[in-house]
Write a structure and sequence with these properties.
CATH superfamily: CBS-domain
Oligomer: single chain
Helix content: 40-55%
Order of helices and strands: HEHEEHHHEEH
Bound molecules: adenosine monophosphate
Number of domains: 1
Length: 143
């Protein structure tokens, strides 16, 4: 399965923010959309960073309440690993496992077209495995 197929089954629109948005504003958006990460876009709508709930926890642990007034650009991860619609589910699983993160933006010609979370990966991987099991059972039953 490729990422383009997974994106088609997802709700359109990716939650984004700007480098000068505050951490409090970002926390509010994450909470209201019940999501775990937000992508930070630059002037040309390119991905310049990502902030996940883990980054916010780290900032609060390091700076206390002052973390809330800090800016996205002060707490975001800048080297964002992205994928394309052509990447496979297996490749994404490997990238997430090796990189120890749970979100990967999908880009096309430098523009953001979606995001894949660990939840999407688990859902579609489980569906793939179930299909394989059903096919195997059919094969065994028919000898
Ligand atoms: P997560 O597991 O996605 O909540 O993120 C764990 C850490 O990895 C946080 O510091 C994120 O900013 C960072 N992170 C999340 N996704 C990516 C990504 N695609 N590329 C690089 N870093 C990421």
């Amino acid at each position: 399965m490729i990422i383009g197929q997974i994106l088609k089954s997802k709700e359109r629109g990716v939650m984004t923010a700007r480098p000068d948005d505050s951490i409090q504003e970002i926390a509010l958006r994450l909470a209201s959309r019940k999501i775990g990460a937000i992508l930070i876009l630059g002037d040309t709508e390119n991905v310049v960073g990502i902030i996940s709930e883990r980054d916010i926890i780290r900032l609060v642990a390091e700076h206390g309440a002052a973390a809330l007034t800090m800016l996205a650009k002060e707490g975001m991860t800048r080297d964002v690993v992205c994928c394309t619609r052509e990447c496979t589910l297996d490749e994404i699983m490997e990238t997430m496992t090796k990189g120890r993160f749970r979100h990967i933006p999908v880009v096309e010609n430098g523009a953001l077209v979606g995001i894949i979370s660990i939840g999407d990966v688990v859902k579609h991987h489980t569906a793939e495995v179930e299909l394989e099991v059903t096919a195997m059972r059919g094969y065994l039953a028919t000898g």
